[in-house]
Amino acid sequence: xxxxxxxxxxxxxxxxxxxxxxxxxxxxxxxxxxxxxxxxxxxxxxxxxxxxxxxxxxxxxxxxxxxxxxxxxxxxxxxxxxxxxxxxxxxxxxxxxxxxxxxxxxxxxxxxxxxxxxxxxxxxxxxxxxxxxxxxxxxxxxxxxxxxxxxxxxxxxxxxxxxxxxxxxxxxxxxxxxxxxxxxxxxxxxxxxxxxxxxxxxxxxxxxxxxxxxxxxxxxxxxxxxxxxxxxxxxxxxxxxxxxxxxxxxxxxxxxxxxx
Amino acid sequence: xxxxxxxxxxxxxxxxxxxxxxxxxxxxxxxxxxxxxxxxxxxxxxxxxxxxxxxxxxxxxxxxxxxxxxxxxxxxxxxxxxxxxxxxxxxxxxxxxxxxxxxxxxxxxxxxxxxxxxxxxxxxxxxxxxxxxxxxxxxxxxxxxxxxxxxxxxxxxxxxxxxxxxxxxxxxxxxxxxxxxxxxxxxxxxxxxxxxxxxxxxxxxxxxxxxxxxxxxxxxxxxxxxxxxxxxxxxxxxxxxxxxxxxxxxxxxxxxxxxxxxxxxxxxxxxxxxxxxxxxxxxxxxxxxxxxxxxxxxxxxxxxxxxxxxxxxxxxxxxxxxxxxxxxxxxxxxxxxxxxxxxxxxxxxxxxxxxxxxxxxxxxxxxxxxxxxxxxxxxxxxxxxxxxxxxxxxxxxxxxxxxxxxxxxxxxxxxxxxxxxxxxxxxxxxxxxxxxxxxxxxxxxxxxxxxxxxxxxxxxxxxxxxxxxxxxxxxxxxxxxxxxxxxxxxxxxxxxxxxxxxxxxxx
Lengths: 260, 507
Fold this sequence. Notes:
Oligomer: heterodimer
Strand content of chain B: 15-25%
Number of strands of chain B: 18
Order of helices and strands of chain A: HEHEEHEEHEHEEHEHEH
Strand order of the largest sheet of chain A: 7-6-8-9-10
Structural class of chain A: alpha/beta
CATH class of the largest domain in chain B: Mainly Alpha
Helix content of chain B: 25-40%
Largest interface: A-B, 69 and 63 residues
Helix content of chain A: 10-25%
CATH topology of the largest domain in chain A: Rossmann fold
Shape of chain A: globular
Largest sheet of chain A: 5 strands, parallel
CATH architecture of the largest domain in chain B: Orthogonal Bundle
Number of strands of chain A: 10
CATH class of the largest domain in chain A: Alpha Beta
Strand content of chain A: 5-15%
Largest sheet of chain B: 5 strands, mixed
Distance between the termini of chain B: 39 Å
Shape of chain B: globular
Number of domains of chain A: 2
Number of domains of chain B: 2
Number of helices of chain A: 8
Structural class of chain B: alpha+beta
C-alpha cells in the first residue's frame, strides 16, 4: 500500500491545461501548411506532382491544398524550388464541411460550433462509438489517448462508449474498407437520432494513401453524412480534442492567425 | 539434377533472381519441411504468377543458429500438395496463397479465407487486377462444437473499445473456452497489390501505414530492402537514428501494453500511469521528427531529420524521466498479488506449440525461445551493438508481460547509449536505381516481433512483387491456441498480452 501511495506521489498531476492554455507542441510539429505567395507564382507544378495523395492544385494564380487528403508529409515543401510552402504550428485543423478543407495557404478559419439546438442536446454530454474501418491504428491510438489522464476527455462530458445504442454519434477512422462497410452502416443505424458523425484522419476524410483502391470507399462521407472532419495522418491528439470542443462550442469559433 | 536446394543470403542483402534454385515441387516441399524440422523457420512463403495458371512459390527460411536466410522456389499449376500437414508453420501462408491466387494446397486441413477478398488476376504489365465481386467478410464455415450446454459466442468486428476490427468465434462450455477461431480481413486495403509496379510516391506511405503503430519498423524493413537492391551504403549516423526510432517505438508500445494489461485486471494505478507514459515515448519520437508515430523520419538512404547536441540532451533528460516513472508504475504490477493471480498460468502456450507455429516476438520469447532479429539476423547498427535477448519461460500472460518489461529496460539503455555516442557525418545518402530481376530480403525486429519484407524486381527494376509479413501474421494462431481451456472472461487479458495488429495482418 505504501508503494502505491509513493508511486502516486511520484507520478503527480499530469492533465494538460488545454484548452485554458495553449498546448506545447514539438518544434518539428507539422501543422497547417501555409504558402508564401511572394515566393510562389502559382504556376510551377512541382509541389502538386510530388504530393502522394494529389492534394494540391495549382491554377496559375495560387495553389489550393486539400487538407482532407494531406498526409502532412512535407513532400511538397521539399519539392518547392523557392521554399514557399511551410508547415506551421497551427494545430486547429477541423472543419464542419468537406469543401472548407480546401485551403489556399493564406486565410484559415477552423470549424464553427454546432447550432444552438444541437449544442443543447450534446454540449454537456456527448457519447461516441468509435469505428475503425481500415485505420492503421495510429488515428485509433491518438483518439484512445484522449481518455488518459493527460487529456482527460471526461471533464468535457465526452466519453467513448461500448455500444452504439448508448452513443450520440460515431467517430470513424480509416478509409472505410469494403470489408467494414456493412459493419459501419449497421453501427451508424444503431445509433439513435439525432446523431453526429466525426471523421478523424486523412483516410476517413478522403481515403488517404488508399484513395482509389478498389478495396476501400475513399472515406466515411461516401456512406454516412459527416459533421466534423479532423485532418492529419494521424492528427495530433490536441487537434482531435480541439475539433471535438470546437464542435460543442467549448473553444472559440474562429482561429486567430497568430500561430501561422 | 542435383544442385543446391536453396541459396543462403544475409539479412538486408539482394541477389539475382536467377541464382535462386528452382526445385521440383516434391523437392521444394521436402526441403522446406526438413529445414523447419531442423530448426529453421518460415519467414515468408508466397506465390507469384508467372503465366496463365502457372505460379512460382517462394520460400524464405530463417536459420537463427547460423544467422542466414535461405531462398528456394518451385513452379506449380493451380494446385500442389500442401506443406501444412507436415509443417504447421506453413498453415497461414498457404491459406494466403490460396486466397490471393486461387492456388489450392491439396490436403490443407483448414483451408479458409484469411482476408476475405476474391483472388487476384494478373493484369497487363504485371499489375494485380482485383475483381470487384464482393465477398461477405467473416462468412465462412467456423469450427463448431455440439453438445448439451455447449454454446457459441461471437464478438466483433466492431469491439467495445477503440481498437481495430476483427471477428472472434468462441466455442464454450459454460465459461470454459474449448476453441477460439479468429476471422480477420476487415482492414484489408489492398497494400500488396498497390505495391506492384513501384516504388512510386505512395510507396513509403503504404509502408508507414501498413501497421501504423509500427511505422519505424516497417519503414526500416522497406528501406533496407531498397537500399540492398540499389547497393546503397547507409551512413552510420543514419543507422543509429533509425535504431533509436525503432527502440522508441518499442518503448512506447510496451509501456502502453503493460498499462492495458493492468487495466484488463482492473489494477488502475499502473493502467493510468502507463497510459500517460506511452505518450511520453511517442512525444520523444515527435521531438525527433515532429510526428508521434515517426512519420516522415525514416526514408531510403537514411533519415530526414538530424539531431544536434541540444536536442540530444533534451531527449536524454526526458527519456530518463519517463523511464523512472515507468519503473515505478510497472513494478507495482509485480508487487501486487491480485495482478499475479490473474497473470500467472493464464493463456499458456507451450514451447513446442510455439516452435511448431513459428511464433515471433515477445510471445515467442515468453516461451523461453531466444528469437530476436536484432540478435539472430542483425542489420544496421545492431551488427555492432547487441541488445541482450529477453526471455521468460512460463509462456503465460505473466511471461508476455515480463518480457516486455525486460525489453523496456534494455531498449532504454540502448537509446541512452546510442544518443550519447552518435557517430558524426551525414544522415542521408543518395539511393541509385534498383537492380533489375533481383530479390532482396530484409528482417527487422519490430516491437511485435519479426517484420519480413521481400522485394522482387522485374526487368525494368520495378517491383514485380513486394511481400510484407507483419509479425502478427505468425502470431494470430498463437492467440487462438492460448485461449484453449481458458475462462472466456480472460479473453481481453490474453488478447492484450499478444496485442497483435489487424491492419498489419490484413494489409
